[in-house]
Amino acid sequence: MTPLRQRMLHDMEIRNLADNTQKSYLIQVASFTRHFHRSPELLGPDEIRAWLIHLREERKLAPGSLGPTIGALRFLYRVTLKRDWSDEDFPLPKKPVRLPVILSFDEVTTFFDAIPSLKHRAILMTAYAAGLRVSEVVHLKVTDIDSKRMVIRVRQGKGRKDRYVMLSPRLLEVLRTYWQDAHPREWLFPGNIPGQPISRDAVGLACQLARKRSGIQKPITPHSLRHAFATHLLETGTDVRRIQLLMGHRSLSTTSKYLRIATSTVCATASPFDLLPHPAPIPFPPPASEYF
């Protein structure tokens, strides 16, 4: 490990960046330096722009996929190398705004019915019932399920923050049935490697197999269940601020995006067209036979 890489790693550890973020940043910087065959200390804004163009035009990366690259280079040059560079030196492409595809209540039910494994069903039901990220679901411990207070403790979610979410009575029944069958000890959903939780990839694969079995044509990922959780809460009258706390969003604007896809609050709103007086009926021309 080079001294510069070690310094960057120490800087990220001091700031308590998530382990996945640290790994991603190191990979991004390593790719950047290998492309130019020089130390990043010898590279500057011109090389950064050239690298981003390369990623967009040669590797065909979407604008949204460049975020980790920008974040890694900003951290390296501004924090570790202490370069006084502006945001313009790290041009971030504007991402197209796309709304997530939301499953209906019936589709969620059909999806769950298509999961043959009790363990996988319990995992994905937990993701939906509590609105958890897949990384949060797989890292749940048995002790995080508090049936006395009817809450689930989410340890070190995104942004390294703990939070509590509701424990659905119906979900508690599912988890008790699963526990009686599997008897997990530490991790609620253990993986194939002893002492380790189930992997996110394994949950994603179970999700895709269930989607195929269900016959649902919409794309479904574990995160789709989190989107459905927030949208369904909003459609049934839950306050946006409360949803923000349950989702663990830092900003209310992140939660507010669900206002654009909640049909009961958007599409169910009466159009002003319906308030206009009914106009006189439009006279239809007589049938063609009457012209002869």
UniProtKB/TrEMBL annotation:
Keywords: DNA integration, DNA recombination, DNA-binding. Residues 1-81 form the Core-binding (CB) domain. One of its GO terms (biological process) is DNA recombination. One of its GO terms (molecular function) is DNA binding. It holds the Pfam family Phage_integrase. Residues 98-271 form the Tyr recombinase domain. Belongs to the 'phage' integrase family. This is Phage integrase family protein.
